[in-house]
Design brief:
This protein is an alpha+beta fold. It contains two helices and 13 strands. The protein is about 20% helix and about 35% strand.
């Protein structure tokens, strides 16, 4: 049995779950999320807990079992607490600012980069060098944070660029002067 897949997902007080075939809808204080789970997985709602069961011990079913359970658990956590990713900008003259809903990034290019986040994602520029991406969908929060980071990835010689707050960037030694 999958160690993750067999764990039941407890539903907090203010969270509702609706199952229609293989479509799971979770509604909570922060919003509503829907996701289609593989039709082979059996999702059940019993006594305020969601359980996911698999039909066999085949390799594909074992993989889908833990995945399906984790996706539903992330939906429950998203509508109750939400998710957040923090980015920081390093480099002389590199900065970020908000103009309404648009995020303007000045990253050493000849032009500023203007980024429009999706509807359900909130992006905040705190100070000139910190960016916070938050929302209820874990997958979308991670995707938007990765997209912002891709505009100027941290380079290994001086460490300039956009990185996650807890990210470690290994720095290399530069060229040494000749004789």
């Amino acid at each position: 049995m999958s160690r993750i897949g067999k764990l039941p997902i407890p539903l907090p007080d203010k969270v509702e779950c609706k199952l229609e075939g293989n479509l799971v809808t979770i509604k909570g204080p922060k919003g509503e999320l829907q996701r289609e789970i593989s039709p082979e997985m059996k999702v059940a709602l019993e006594d305020g807990q969601i359980t996911v069961a698999r039909p066999s011990d085949g390799k594909q079913h074992r993989a889908l079992h833990g995945l399906s359970r984790t996706l539903i658990a992330n939906m429950v956590e998203g509508v109750t607490k939400g998710f957040e990713k923090k980015l920081e900008i390093r480099g002389v003259g590199y900065r970020a600012e908000m103009r309404g809903k648009l995020l303007n990034l000045y990253l050493g290019y000849s032009h500023p980069i203007v980024f429009m986040p999706p509807e359900s994602i909130e992006v905040r520029a705190e100070g000139n060098t910190n960016i916070t991406v938050s929302g209820i969908d874990k997958e979308l929060v991670g995707h938007v944070a990765a997209k912002i980071r891709s505009f100027r990835k941290p380079e290994p010689y001086k460490g300039k660029g956009i990185r996650y707050v807890d990210e470690y960037v290994r720095e290399k030694a530069g060229k040494t002067a000749g004789k």
